[in-house]
């Protein structure tokens, strides 16, 4: 195979990968070649533009380390991550909708008891979060594992300022009680820009886009026999709900963070300053494998 | 914009980038979003497969340094580099065809005099290369700058074994004489596998492909008023001519490297051992900007 034209080279590459052993890898590779070539044929890059593309990808890779994942940020801001999300998670009655994991999840969040304050002393408006975890038919799921994490009042996560604050904060792992209920205290999160000092930031600037996400609290909820739920609850009224830079907002995930005057809080504690209350009742989807085994 | 479906998310991203200021960047970004989303919609990656894709790109970036360009290797082996080549360089009478630059070009090759031996003492079959540089109508281009580089008898370039050989070799910059002629001695290059100990190598193995390129000599030729020519001359009869891993072979770039018994070589030198002779006459394309200015 020699002397390829703009169209025969695509067939040549497809022919060359016919011996791909794994059928799924073959399917993905064939689609990659067809779509990549179609993109190049449409755009007709100059040699110089091709070099700029190679340089962009290289700098994106060099920006990735154990604290920063620039390729995830690129996938998020190009809408690819949420496209993968909707492909894998259709809406279903009684099941909470999903959204992106984001780059700030930490595997080993500190275990906390229900009712604990996880703010780690960060300054902000006090917030109590209450809620429940159930199956789609409303049956409480006792003891479900609940990871939560959120930004501070300035829009920064703990891991972005460990040098300053010294320890993880606004982040914890809880277990729901026997009735599937949970509650904890923290501070109300703020909207924030995704890190935009790298190639993704250059792209957003060239595209004339802002880098902001509306304020939200992340939840990751697991229980035996159910699919793991990865989602956020967004603060109603946030000015970025309709322009989230990663396209992650779903109406069912927006809740009023209700302001209360000083007084007795929902967990019985006496609160001497105004506070906010978020309640969200989560529904988990039964795991397919578990259903088959039952 | 919220609650995206598999199709509305693409429109949402396209709408979001409508304010891209530079029209060419806008065109490229719009095409990227459409083709990337079409690929994802066709392949329907699981969350796990998406993570594997992010990991593949990240490792490809981490493999890039000042001696290795893994994204170029990926572009080359997926046929994207040669697609960009054919888009930018259609065949034209009297103009030598182009092919990939490859990852082994070095900016500051040593200047050599016509007739010099550039083998640097590497062991192999002696080879004399002769040729000329002309405009499409056959007019000699005096003093054209000619960069040449090629592999050794084992298929390795100097830059892959600098620790062992200590200096650049089989690489030089010449200037054609007043009649556009050039000549130099070296050793006959061998076929070689592209570096395959990284993510690109994993991909080639999964695709059931070999990593080999047919033996060739690289040429990069420049002269005022002409487009720079980046090409190779391939050794006729090489077993990889029809399966070059980067799809770079064009028939017009294949030449017999003719074996000669000891005796007087084409440059008048007396050669005491058998040697090979390659002759190639190059045609350069007049530069558009220069033509307009003339």
Q: Top keywords for this entry?
A:
8 helices, 28% helix, 2 domains, alpha+beta, 294 residues, 13 strands, Protocatechuate 3,4-Dioxygenase, subunit A, homodimer
Instruction: Give the oligomeric state.
Output: homodimer
CATH architecture of the largest domain in chain A: Sandwich
CATH class of the largest domain in chain A, anyone?
Answer: Mainly Beta
| Main sheet makeup of chain A | 5 strands, mixed
Instruction: Summarize the amount of helix of chain A as a percent range.
Output: 25-40%
Averaged pLDDT of chain A, please? Answer: 94
Order of helices and strands of chain A: HHHHHEEHEEEHEEEEEEEEH
Strand fraction of chain A: 15-25%
Mind telling me the C-alpha Rg of chain A? 23 Å
Number of domains of chain A: 2
Q: Helical element count of chain A?
A: 8
| Poorly predicted ranges of chain A | none
Cα shape of chain A: globular
Most extensive interface between two protein chains, with residue counts: A-B, 73 and 74 residues
Structural class based on helices, strands and sheet pairing of chain A? alpha+beta
């Amino acid at each position: 195979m020699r002397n390829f034209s703009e169209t025969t080279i695509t067939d040549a590459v497809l022919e060359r990968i016919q011996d791909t052993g794994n059928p799924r890898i073959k399917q993905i590779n064939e689609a990659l070649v067809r779509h990549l070539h179609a993109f190049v044929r449409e755009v007709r890059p100059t040699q110089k533009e091709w070099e700029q593309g190679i340089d962009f990808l290289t700098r994106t890779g060099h920006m990735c380390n154990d604290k920063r994942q620039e390729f995830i940020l690129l996938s998020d801001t190009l809408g690819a991550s949420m496209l993968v999300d909707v492909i894998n998670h259709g809406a279903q009655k009684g099941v909470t909708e999903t959204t992106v994991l984001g780059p700030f999840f930490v595997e080993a969040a500190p275990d906390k008891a229900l009712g604990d304050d996880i703010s780690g002393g960060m300054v902000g408006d006090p917030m109590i979060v209450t809620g429940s975890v159930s199956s789609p038919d409303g049956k409480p799921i006792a003891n479900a594992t609940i990871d939560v994490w959120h930004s501070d009042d300035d829009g920064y996560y703990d891991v972005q300022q460990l040098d300053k604050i010294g320890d993880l904060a606004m982040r914890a792992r809880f277990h729901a009680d026997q009735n599937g209920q949970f509650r904890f205290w923290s501070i109300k999160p703020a909207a924030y820009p995704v890190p935009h000092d790298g190639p993704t930031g250059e792209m957003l600037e060239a595209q004339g886009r802002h880098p902001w996400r509306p304020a939200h609290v992340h939840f990751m909820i697991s229980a035996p026999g159910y699919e793991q739920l990865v989602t956020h609850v967004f603060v109603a009224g946030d000015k970025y709900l309709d322009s989230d830079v990663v396209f992650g907002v779903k109406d069912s995930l927006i809740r009023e963070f209700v302001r209360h005057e000083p007084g007795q809080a929902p967990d019985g504690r006496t609160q001497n300053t105004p506070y906010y209350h978020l309640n969200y009742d989560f529904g988990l989807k039964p795991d397919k494998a578990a259903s088959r085994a039952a």
